């Protein structure tokens, strides 16, 4: 992967991993990081209806996967704007989901502050969008994980991790969140 030589299976710290036969490259695994937005306006939560699999037809919170060179808070803000035309800014990290599988997935949920816009679906990833009261969700096909996130948004007991805008040690290029 680095020098172009063949990879072999090798024990690396007690785990069999693919490693280069010539250089120090080790394939540590396959990972993906998803982000999700919890945006509440006037006591209602922003949800979108999936127009694609997985979960086509189910209501979820807006979100997506981070890009290689994009800060995680920029990703979630962009995804909300792209999927439903809502401008919102990150306030806190309020939930994490760890899903170990063939591509290990970590999902980070953000409490976001509504800034502007009316929900309009992009008609690519989502075909409907809106702000909904808790009572309305009973009549909607809301994805199970999103139901859990809605509970976090409305009944969470913590303010979560906030962006550290003024760290005691300047660390350029880091996205820092703290209690």
Which helices and strands appear, and what pairs or packs with what?
Layout: E1 7-12, E2 15-20, E3 26-27, E4 31-41, E5 44-50, E6 59-60, E7 63-65, H1 72-84, E8 87-99, E9 104-116, E10 126-132, H2 134-137, H3 144-155, E11 161-163, E12 177-178
What does this structure look like?
The chain is an alpha+beta fold. The chain is 16% helix and 42% strand. The strands form two sheets. Strands 4, 5, 6, 7, 8, 9, 10, 11 and 12 form a nine-stranded mixed beta sheet that branches. It is globular, with a radius of gyration of 19 Å. 24% of the residues are buried.
Question: How many beta-strand segments?
Answer: 12
Mean pLDDT: 95
Label the overall shape. Answer: globular
User: What string, H for helix and E for strand, traces the elements in order?
Assistant: EEEEEEEHEEEHHEE
Cα-to-Cα separation, first versus last residue: 38 Å
The percent range for strand residues is 35-45%
Q: Give the number of helices.
A: 3
User: What proportion of the residues is helical, as a percent range?
Assistant: 10-25%
Largest sheet: 9 strands, mixed
Radius of gyration: 19 Å
Instruction: Report the structural category.
Output: alpha+beta
Low-confidence stretches: none
List keywords for this structure.
179 residues, alpha+beta, nine-stranded mixed β-sheet, three-stranded antiparallel β-sheet, globular
């Amino acid at each position: 992967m680095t020098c172009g030589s063949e990879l072999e299976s090798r024990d690396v710290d007690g785990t069999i991993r693919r490693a280069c036969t010539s250089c120090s490259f080790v394939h540590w695994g396959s990972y993906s990081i998803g982000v999700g937005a919890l945006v509440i306006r006037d006591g209602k939560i922003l949800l979108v209806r999936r127009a694609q699999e997985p979960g086509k037809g189910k209501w979820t919170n807006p979100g997506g996967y981070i890009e290689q060179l994009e800060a995680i808070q920029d990703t979630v803000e962009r995804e909300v704007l792209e999927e439903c035309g809502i401008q919102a800014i990150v306030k806190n990290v309020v939930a994490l989901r760890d899903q170990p599988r063939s591509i290990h997935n970590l999902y980070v949920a953000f409490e976001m502050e509504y800034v502007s816009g009316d929900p309009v679906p992009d008609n690519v990833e989502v075909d409907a969008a809106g702000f909904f009261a808790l009572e309305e969700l009973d009549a909607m096909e809301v994805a199970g994980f999103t139901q859990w996130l809605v509970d976090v948004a409305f009944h969470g007991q913590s303010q979560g991790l906030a962006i550290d805008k003024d760290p005691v040690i300047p660390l350029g290029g880091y996205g820092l969140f703290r209690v």
